[in-house]
Amino acid sequence: MPVREVEPPAEDETWTPLDSPVDPCPPRMAAGTFARDPQPGRITWGPLPKGFRRSRAGQGPGGDLVLSPGDLVGTAKVASRWGGCCGPGGYDGPNLACAGCGAQVGLWTGDCYTWLEVVLDGRLVGRSPSE
Questions:
Q1: Could you tell me the mean pLDDT of each successive run of 10 residues in the chain, 131 residues long?
Q2: What is the edge-to-edge ordering of all strands in the sheet holding 65-67?
Q3: Cβ contacts of residue 128 below 8 Å, gap of 6+?
Q4: If you ran DSSP here, which 8-state letter would residue 13 be given?
Q5: Is 0.85 surpassed by the pTM of this model?
Q6: Which of 111, 114, 116, 97 lies closest to 49, judged by CA?
Q7: pLDDT in tens, 29-38
Q8: The pLDDT of residue 123
Q9: Phi, psi torsion values for 70, nearest 5 degrees
Q10: Which phi and psi angles does 105 have, rounded to 5°?
Q11: What share of the chain is helix, strand, coil (3-state, %, to 5)?
Q12: Which of 62, 104, 105, 114 has CA 20 to 30 A from 48's CA?
């Protein structure tokens, strides 16, 4: 399914699983949408992997991209960084890798105290062509 860019939701409009009035807690981003991370730099990605060029998707302020986990394609979990008490906490660094080349491309969070979201390194990722 194609995703479209929207403004990120305000912090007071989103819940963590601990404070969600519904179960299961909905993802921070609605299905089919993505936003530029309103907190640029909260994740330190490090230098671009050797042989990579900067993607056009992540240019400009807030280059990291936030989306619903259900819209994620082409990635694999980094099991050694998937720690958390109720889901992935994201405190061990990037825990998603490109399924093709293995480059660390994102962070999935969904622990009881975090938003349920995926943050992708906008320097590395792009949209899949529409089918």
A1: 88 87 92 87 71 58 83 93 89 90 91 91 73 44
A2: 4-5, 33-36, 65-67, 117-120, 104-109, 96-98, 75-77
A3: 73, 74
A4: G
A5: no
A6: 97
A7: 999 999 988 8
A8: 80
A9: -70, -15
A10: -120, -10
A11: 5, 20, 75
A12: 114
As a residue count, the chain comes to 131
DSSP type of residue 98: E
Residue whose structure tokens are 């660094």: 93
36 has which bridge partners?
Answer: 65
Q: Which residues contact 64 (CB under 8 A, 6 or more apart)?
A: 36, 37, 40, 42, 43, 58, 119, 120, 121, 122
Task: Tell me the three state secondary structure of residue 97.
Answer: strand
Nearest to 8 by CA among 119, 88, 127, 125: 119
